[in-house]
Amino acid sequence: YTLGTAEDIGPGYFPFWLSVLLGVLGAVLALSALAPRAQRTDIGRLDWRSTLWIVGAVLLFAFLLEYLGVVLAMAVLVLVSSRGSHEFTWKGALGSTLVLAVLVYLVFVVGLHLQFPAWPTLFA
Description:
Blueprint: H1 13-34, H2 48-82, H3 90-111
Helix pairs in contact: 2-3
C-alpha cells in the first residue's frame, strides 16, 4: 500500500504509523522489563487445557465463518473460548456472546460493509 503524505493520506498511512507507534511502545516496555530495578515476575506453567480451548475456538471460527456467517461463527468462538477461562460461567459466556454479536453485526456488517456473510446462506 502506498503511504501518501499527511496532506494526501494513502491506504498504508494509518497501518504504517500504527505499527511504528506499537514498535516504540514494545521497545519501551521491553527495555523497562530488562532494567535492573524492574520487579521480578515468575511465570507459572502453561495451562494447556485453557490454551487448547482458546486456539481450538479460533480454528473453529475460521472454519465456520463461511458456513454460519460472522455473527453465529463469532458466537461459537466466544462460547468455546470461554471454556478456557478458570472463572467460566454459562451466564457470563451467554451475556458476552449476546453483547459481542450485536457489536460485530453493527460494526462489521452495518458500519464497515465487510465482504463476508453476516448470516448462514439459509437465512440470507
